[in-house]
Design a protein that fits this description.
Pfam families: ABC_tran. The protein is of the alpha/beta class. The protein contains 10 helices and 10 strands. Helix 3 (99-105) packs parallel to helix 6. The longest helix is centred in the last third of the chain and has 16 residues, at 172-187.
Amino acid sequence: MSAPEPLLNCQALEAGYGVSQVLFGIDLQIAAGEVVSLLGRNGMGKSTTIKALVGALRPTAGGIRFAGEATGRLKTDAIARLGLAIVPEGRHVFPNLTVREHLVAFADHRNGLRDAWDLERIYAVFPRLKERQNNLGNQLSGGEQQMLAIGRALSTNPRLLILDEATEGLAPVIREEIWRCLATLKAAGQTILVVDKYVHRLVDLADRHVILERGRVVWQGDSAALNADRSLWARYLTV
C-alpha cells in the first residue's frame, strides 16, 4: 500500500522578486498532524518560502500541493479556503475590534474537522483571551496580541497553521506561555509549520526540521538528529 500524500508537498520550488531569484529547488513535505520547523539565518529564504506557500508570491518553477490541490497559481483567499492559515510576523490585530469580535469574525468550520476550534476551545487554550474578550486590539499587550493572532488563525479551523516568528519581541515569561500553548496545539493534533529563532525550544516542540541556506535546503531531519549535531547550529543558525 502506498503512503498517503503529505498534507503539504513542495517539490523543486523556485521563487524570487523580479530578476532576483531567492529559492532554488526547495523540497518541503508536511504530513497531517506533524509539526515542522523551518530554520535558517535571516535572509536565507524562510519568508519567501512562506509567501509562496500562502499565495502572496507566485513560484517561478516547481510545484506546491496542499490538501490534494495544486496551489502554485491560486490566489491567497483560495488557498486559505483549502485550510491554510498564517500567524504573520507582527501579529496584525485590528485595533478597533474586541478580542471576541476578532475570533467570531474569522470563525469558519468549512474543513469539517472533528474537533472544531470554536470560541470556548480557543479560550481554554488561551484563558487570558477570555479574561480580555471585551478589550480592543490596541488595549492588549504584545503577548496578548500574539495569543489573539494565533486564536484568530485557529478560529478558521485550518488544516495547516503557519507561525512566522511567533515569539519575536516578547518578554521571556510571555514567550514561555506561547511555547506552552504551541505544545497544547501539537498534543491536539494540529499540523504546524513554525519559523522561530529559538532552536532549543523548537527541538522540544517539532517532529522534524528543515534548514535553509541561501535559498536551498541544506539539511533536514528529526529533533534527535538536530539536537545531537550542534555543528549544524553553529554552521547554519547562529549569527
